Amino acid sequence: MTVCAVLFDVGGPIDLEVEHERLIDAAIREAVAHEGFAVDDERYAAANVHAIESFAPDAYAAIAWDLCEHNPAATRRVLEQLRAGGDARTAQRGGIELRPGVAAMLQQLHGCGLRLGLAANQPVRVIAELDRQGIGGLFTHREVAGHHGYRKPDVRLILRALEELGVAPDEAVMVGDRIDNDIVPARLLGMRTVLIRTGRHAAQQPRSPDETPDAEVFDVAGMQAAIIEMAGM
User: Which of 7, 33, 126, 162 is the most exposed place for a label (fewest CB within 10 A)?
Assistant: First the structure.
């Protein structure tokens, strides 16, 4: 089938999230230390690697679980504190960190007639951020997890996007930065996939051939080239 739509995760492909992840790490370490558990760089790095390699759907929760030595009550308090500080961290970093060149890429894809949608585990406020950056209007499907409660790797999040765009899975491409949350559910549905190696999950590896993306890229130029090739443009 001809590709006529592209779904994008926000964190990674669109939002660099460098400052976001730095603030998240600092908040987790502070909350875990407040619970009385030792947190040094080596322990934190090991917890992070384990979260990525184990395909933990919520890497932050997995990191906190490890650092709190599998103490349920302490882990819940850490995660509650992390959620409570979300708005403050967003304000501190000044909104999303738009990947250089991504706006021009989206404009070109949209101008070529491709239907664009979001497939992201993000709060509703990210839509206003995309609008503020001048790219929100390029997306026909503008729902994220915060609108309906589905979170990847739940395929229902992706299916809602495809339905609104009016395309079948084999007519769409999924672009994301995670094997577990982006590539796996998209491939399960029969979509073509582009993995951008970036951020916290940059080193994540597929566990079988079925989880291998159709293309692996490292920047906007790579994303654009892969999408254009898949769309036969």
Answer: 33
| Choices 3.65.10.20, 3.40.50.10140, 3.40.50.1000, 3.30.70.2190: CATH for 5-17+96-231 | 3.40.50.1000
| pTM over the 0.85 mark | yes
Tokens of 227: 């999408």
